[in-house]
Amino acid sequence: MNAKTKAAIIKHGEQLLAIFPRATERDPVKLCKKLRRLEREGHAIGLRLCNGPQYRNPEEAENLIASILAQVNKVLGNRHEYQPKTGAACGCKRGIERDNCANCEGTGRVIDFHAIRNRKPLVPVFVNLDPRGYALKIETEWMLDNVGKLSQRDWGDYGLIAPDLTDEEG
User: How far is residue 135 CA from its own chain's centroid?
Assistant: First the structure.
């Protein structure tokens, strides 16, 4: 890796760290490498869906995409912190029954686990399945509202999370 390529990777990694301050990987180069690996996995799924051989069932591809997106959001720290919302009093009794209650997890108040699991990420990241471009992107609307935060974009103004910066020109 030459100095120009390394500088481009560091710059992109620092921009990602500015957008995702809770990223689990704080080294810009390592962050870009992890995301680039996930980018290639997402791109391979899009290519396979386009060219074949097809997956055995549609759920298999959807599960792989969901897995990649979950890994990307985990690496980027792109989820709300876990803060269960409590509701009405739980019907369990104090003691052993409450300690083993799946509805309240011992708090005595019902927790809405469905709402917690289905929260949207802080930054709208998605997997693009068009094999002609990059797979990991940030929605255009978010990019337009946050102009200047990420310099790597495609023609549709989608933010590119893990572009190939090895042939970056100057």
Answer: 12
